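Inputs:
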Amino acid sequence: MTSTTIPESFADLLDWDTKSFAHVATIGPDGAPQNNPVWFDWDGEHLKFSLTTGRQKYRNLRADSRVSLSILDPADPYRYLEVRGELVEIEPDPNIDFISRMAKKYIGKDRYPWHREGDERVVMKVKPVKTTGMG
Amino acid sequence: MTSTTIPESFADLLDWDTKSFAHVATIGPDGAPQNNPVWFDWDGEHLKFSLTTGRQKYRNLRADSRVSLSILDPADPYRYLEVRGELVEIEPDPNIDFISRMAKKYIGKDRYPWHREGDERVVMKVKPVKTTGMG
């Protein structure tokens, strides 16, 4: 796996204050694509997002680590960044610290308000491999 | 291939006036996902979007017709619809009529302003097979 950096001209799309969403495409068990929006965090090296382990997307990424994130500029719909990458680590989030940080970022709440008893949360860490920007 | 209808409670996300974008995930030649936003039209039966035939996404869909569109409500980021479908037809757009209609929808222009001499435009018609909504 080769690594890559985010182009300087699109780095703002990953900023905390931009609050952009990432549409995350994975490959399902039959080889067909699956795609939905998530909250994400960028730590300068990894794109991170939360999943419950009951989700199809979690099973997809366990089986095939390749992922593509499509990120649209909320302020300019003619700017976007596609980040293709690989899942390199799954971190447990037993105290829902990470998803609560995301709730802070996106909805200004100190704690994620939709946690359900029994949900097992994890943090999916994706390393960018290739990027394509437009706009 | 089975067909499906769009759930009534999410049908507004496909409306002309909603001007939502679809993030379109396809499968590349190496089996990895590719994902980026597009303008789209919904005619009640097909989701349609424009491509130039030089695009990787065009080649991907020619090789594997399975596609997933992730559509976020521009007015409520906690509502989204995922439409999985299959490419069922490719229509030529030699006079850029379709992409100009999309320019009307999204940016209020009568004619698509970024057409380049030599670009061959087509309309990709996707039939929904399965939908998943949230929010």
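The first helix of chain A runs from residue 56 to 63. Flag for discussion at group meeting.
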